[in-house]
Amino acid sequence: MDIEIIKNLANMARVDMNEAEMKEIGDSFGPILAYVGQIQEVSDTGDAPYEEVADEPINVMREDVVINKGGDYTEKV
What we know:
Elements lengths: L2 H11 L5 H25 L34
């Protein structure tokens, strides 16, 4: 990754970095971006089975079930 891009990113993030740190960050971005590219290739295939049911609404909440008897947690006046 180009040093000027890293300087711009550091400036936007308001992070002070010296030239050695910028070079180290630049060297580490290559493998990270390559890995992200591999992930994007896998997710672009369209063969994922979850895409078929993505439009169907799914209830993720459990049903409310009363398990205690009435009056268990109330004081008698």
